[in-house]
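PROTOCOL LOG
Step 1. Enter all chains and additional molecules of the complex.
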Amino acid sequence: MALRVFHPCQFNFADQDIRVDVTTTSGGVSLSGYEDVIGTGGGGIWRADLTNADFGDRDDEGRAATLAWRAINAAMQGGSVAVDLIFCDALHQPVTGSSRVPHSDQTPFGDDALYRSSGASGTVLAVVNGQTGGNRATILDIALTSACPLLGGERFSYQGANGWGSRAAEIFSIEPISGGYRVAISPPIRGGIKAGDALDFDNIRCQMRRTSPASNPLNMGAFSSGSISFQEDMRPPVQP
Amino acid sequence: MNRNLLLRIDCPDTARIWSGPGPLYLPADGIETTDGALYLGGGELLENFGEIEQLINGTASRLDITVSGVTAATVKLMGETAGVKGARVDIGVVEFDDQWQIQAVTWTAQYRIDKLTATRTDKRTIGLSMGSDDTGRSSTLNAYWTQADQQRRSPDDRFFDQVSGLNAGKSRLFGPK
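Step 2. Run joint prediction.
Step 3. Record the structure below.
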């Protein structure tokens, strides 16, 4: 069965904290008070804390949100089954976000929908460092067609080679090169990546699994809310 | 500075684990004979990695490593129990640059596994207990020649008079008091 998708927008979380968790350990404090810090996290993993969801009112939409929450939580089976978590953060991506335009004669489609921007289209031009097949690469040359220029801090997702599936990375440094950008990313590429691979700046997603029990209190028997935490699923993929 | 630990268990199907997430390919060196050997990410597995102590005066703490989880890496360890006892274990440190690329690999200690335990209660864990090559559970500590030993052999010899004052880190003159 295909991997399920957890879409935070569906549940209207008030707080959404998705970040790369980096572990460090202190190297000790010297006589002059200087403290050395040693990175021990191997480059970090993604973590997500989504809290205070608003499941809406006592209407069909609120009912559907509560049922969707229950269904996907049952499907995650206590956290042993991974899901693709969508980051839902178009505002901080190089896309035009929610801008939508009508036809040239100012009319919408029959169902009142408007044209949406096509978003950003990213491709790997070259893998600059890393190991065999681009595993653990942290510097990529990329080509990007997007509405906004890259500023740093954007995220993208890619398909990790060797069965690692959808993984996300965060850009922390940018250098313009001919035809695109040279970007440094965190965490390192999982599995592998190669020139020509697509980078998704529109729907960033990462394979994660639940770490906290998902609460789902019902207030007054109708108004419900929820909180949930995820961590990146780092179990080695089972090779066919 | 970035650094992680490496664990290489030389059983029939060599088990390789490092303490970070995801796969890591290691270059060949004196210990790791396969170039580009795949180390499984044990960042989410390794629970307990005791301190490594040097063998001084015939005693050193044993090293116990605990891994938990239900991943392929754990299953691999479980499947190799036949060859694990007595297997050589190398523990190393891999240093990365700021971009998390391998800079250097240093193998710091060599052990030999003598006990493997597995528990499957609320948490599935495997414990590896290992000692350095010179230690064993059955052998006694190396003994000192004491003055009494020497007196039994040569009643008038006083060479070992000061042995009782010997201690690690101290120096004593030999000869009569």
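Step 4. Note key features.
The first helix of chain B runs from residue 72 to 79.
Chain B has a mean pLDDT of 75.
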